[in-house]
Description:
Blueprint: E1 5-8, E2 11-14, H1 24-28, E3 36-41, E4 63-73, E5 77-86, H2 89-105, E6 111-117, E7 123-133, E8 136-149, E9 152-160, H3 171-183
Amino acid sequence: MMLIASTMAGMTVTGVPQGFLLYEKAAAKKDANPETTWVVSRKTTAKLVVNPCDKAALGREGRTAAKTIVYTAVPDYSKSEQVILYTDEAAAGRALAAVKAATVRCRTGGYRFATSTAALGDQAIKVIGQAYSGGKPAVGGERAVIARRANALVIYTEAGEWGKPATSDFARQTRDAKTMLAKICRIAAC
C-alpha cells in the first residue's frame, strides 16, 4: 500500500498520525458507561461514514490512508469523524462527487437524502439524511459535512432524533470541519 508522505514540523509523516483527529483524546478515555462506545479504525477500506447507499466501495478508489472515529450512545445518537487521504486531488474530488450522486440515487419512501454546497476547504457539501412519514419530516436522521482540501476528505456527522432539517443542525460538524481543515495540510498534499 502506497502512503502519501508529507512533512510536519520537520519530520516525515505517512498517513494519519496518532492524535491528529479531533475526537481521539475523548475516544482514548476509558468510559464505564455500557450505553456508549467509541470505535477507532485506521483501515483504508472503512466505509464512508456518510454512505446513502450503504455501499462498501463508495469513495474507496485511490485511498492511501484513513482514520475513522465513531461514537455511539444508546438508543440512537452517534457522531463520527473521518479523515481520508487519496492519491491526488482528483481522486478526492471523485469521492466527494460519488457521495453527492448517491444522495440522489439512494432514496426510499421513508428516508431521503439532500445536499447543499458548503463554503469550506476547496470543495464541500452538507448532507441531510431524514426520515419521513406521510411526506413530512419524522423523528430520525443524520447531518454531515464533507469537505475536501487538496487530496484529503474530512467528514463529520451527527445522527439522532432529528426533526425538520434546520441550518443549526450543522453547527458542530461545520466547526469541527473548519478546525480540521486548518491543520490538514500537515498531512495532505496541499
